[in-house]
Specification:
single chain; alpha+beta; Jelly Rolls; four-stranded antiparallel β-sheet
């Protein structure tokens, strides 16, 4: 399984509709942190829980993801070795929207660092379990999605690095981003360190701390505009985008 427990923020009516077998405390309105939803005994349980969260609120958050072990050291080594470059340059942006350092990695390459490969395989298994779920088939076009982009990032604390509000799927590519997955690798991260993933959802804003061994999954389209708040410490993450490859010739 990918993580020891899944977390999601959900209002009471959504909890009742999607998780009627679970009795959990909840709070209405804006919440700063997810709370435990369930303890998943298998990867199938986890996929079902993630699917329920995506249907209810368009994102899901999983903690204690064992596959993320070693990811922090891997990304920190890339950073200290000068392998990450300013995101503005690599993304080809004209305005200063982001101040992170980043590197595009081969999405399907076999020569990735072992720590990165472990994360990708774990998330692949989770995403594969979503395609056949009732209520998600239409969202995912009834087809398995393909991992098509992988990005390593560091938001340097010395620069209060951030990323302004944006949407991942802009309609400018030949294929369409459907799901965004972010694995965080930041030991001993606290609320005062900043760097939150801020989701702008219908009627509320949700801040998610980029704590170590945490994975967040959300729809890449306009349902989930998001930003990264200024970071006071070096903040590491591995971002993965799963595409609808319909109409393309996949080798």
């Amino acid at each position: 399984m990918i993580g020891k427990h899944l977390e999601m923020i959900v209002e009471g009516r959504d909890l009742q509709a999607h998780c009627t077998d679970m009795l959990l405390p909840y709070a209405r309105g804006q919440l700063a942190e997810p709370f435990p939803l369930c303890w998943c005994a298998s990867s199938n349980d986890e996929s079902q829980a993630v699917g329920a969260a995506l249907r209810a609120q368009h994102y899901a958050c999983i903690d204690d993801v064992e596959a993320c072990t070693g990811l922090h050291q891997c990304l920190a080594d890339m950073h200290s070795g000068g392998e990450l470059a300013p995101g503005e340059i690599l993304a080809g942006m004209q305005q200063r929207r982001r101040s992170d350092l980043m590197r595009w990695l081969p999405a399907l390459g076999a020569d990735l660092q072992p720590a990165i490969g472990r994360v990708l395989r774990a998330v692949d298994r989770l995403i594969a379990g979503l395609a056949g779920q009732k209520g998600l088939r239409e969202e995912l076009h009834g087809l398995p999605l393909q991992r098509n982009e992988v990005q390593a990032t560091c938001y340097p604390g010395s620069a209060n690095a951030h990323y302004v509000r944006h949407v991942d799927e802009t309609g400018q590519s030949a294929t369409r981003r459907v799901l965004t997955c972010i694995a965080y690798a930041n030991p001993n991260w606290s609320h005062g360190d900043g760097g939150e993933l801020r989701l702008h959802l219908a009627g509320k804003t949700v801040d998610i701390t980029p704590r170590d061994h945490r994975v967040v999954i959300f729809f890449s389209d306009a349902r989930v505009p998001h930003e990264v708040t200024p970071s006071k410490k070096d903040r590491y993450a591995l971002s993965v985008w799963y595409h609808d490859m319909t109409g393309t010739d996949i080798a």
